[in-house]
Design goal:
By secondary structure, the chain is α/β, with parallel strands linked by helices. Helix content is 37%, strand content 21%. The protein is globular. The chain binds S-adenosylmethionine. The site of S-adenosylmethionine (SAM) has 25 residues, from α1 and α4.
């Protein structure tokens, strides 16, 4: 496991533990994981969606979008959530694909998996399975998944090409990739890139939007779209950047409008539209 993966696992293990602890204490807003007032993680889901879920699944939401709102899911489909955390998007997907479908969550952090499995139990979801593993080496067979979702996780990976290659491999021909991720919209100052703390927090590890599209195409995807939907301003990020030891007033002018939560969509070609010797193998 790389240093970055270890740092990411430590951070999310602690956040999972804080949700579990808060649920037996004072409730959501006592934890850093809850996103109360946080411009990245707040207001991502409708009340209709959250009221159907266990409170701890909602409290553990650490995403930066709502990938399940990005894509039509049909009864009977198989969905895979890369970096499923406390399981919010897996449980929402499970309702949409119904009893004849299946929703997998994949995460490398034991504490998050334990929290997600407990949330599955509370939700009574029988068409859900949480898998332990990394998104760079997905523990599922080739051509086995209809839809891949992910919520603010690919920006944490230090091998994004491997993630996209693996996503392509496990998707069925015609399968869809529908992801929320933090994306950079221009050049990032070197001191931001260098900060491990920012990397863990979804900033320094984010791809530039054209690079994201290009990597998806290299992995074999077609119909690639990267659409910014929530552009962060520096004030949104002030405490986050300060906690990372940066002089916010000094870097602020270089960061304005550069980071956005984006919807990223792409499709694995079907055999008929495949133009490469191995792309649909
Ligand atoms: C920002 S949280 C997002 C969780 C969830 N998607 C959500 O919206 O609440 C990142 C999650 O991805 C997991 N994660 C990060 N990097 C990973 C990797 N390389 N492989 C598997 N899981 C990873 C972490 O353990 C954590 O649960």
């Amino acid at each position: 496991m790389s240093d970055i993966q270890q740092a990411v696992r430590k951070k999310y293990g602690a956040l999972a533990a804080s949700v579990t602890k808060a649920s037996t204490n004072t409730g959501c807003c006592a934890t850093a994981a809850c996103g109360c007032g946080d411009p990245i993680t707040s207001n991502l889901y409708s009340d209709a969606e959250t009221k159907e879920l266990p409170a701890d699944a909602v409290a553990a939401s650490l995403g930066c979008g709502n990938p399940t709102a990005l894509i039509a899911l049909e009864p009977g489909q198989t969905v895979l959530d890369l970096g499923s955390g406390g399981g919010i998007d897996v449980l929402l997907s499970a309702k949409r694909v119904g009893a004849s479908g299946k929703a997998y969550g994949l995460d490398m952090t034991d504490e998050m998996l334990a929290l997600a499995r407990e949330n599955q139990r509370k939700a009574g979801a029988t068409n859900v399975e949480f898998l332990k593993g990394t998104i760079e080496s997905i523990p599922l067979p080739d051509n086995s998944v209809d839809v891949i979702i992910s919520n603010c996780v690919i920006n944490l990976s230090n091998d994004k090409d491997a993630v996209l290659r693996e996503a392509f491999r496990v998707l069925k021909p015609g399968g869809r990739f529908a992801v929320s991720d933090v994306v950079v919209r221009g050049a990032v100052p070197a001191n931001v890139r260098r900060s491990m703390e920012l990397w863990v927090g979804c900033i320094a590890g984010a791809l530039e939007e054209k690079e994201y599209a290009s990597k998806l195409q290299t992995a074999g995807f077609k119909d690639v779209e990267v659409e910014a939907w929530r552009v962060y301003n520096v004030e949104d990020a002030r405490s986050f950047l300060t906690d990372s030891g940066l002089d916010v007033d000094a870097v602020a002018p270089h960061l304005q409008g550069l980071f956005a939560s984006s919807f990223i969509r792409a499709t694995k070609p079907t055999a008929e539209s495949c133009c490469g010797p191995t792309c649909c193998a």
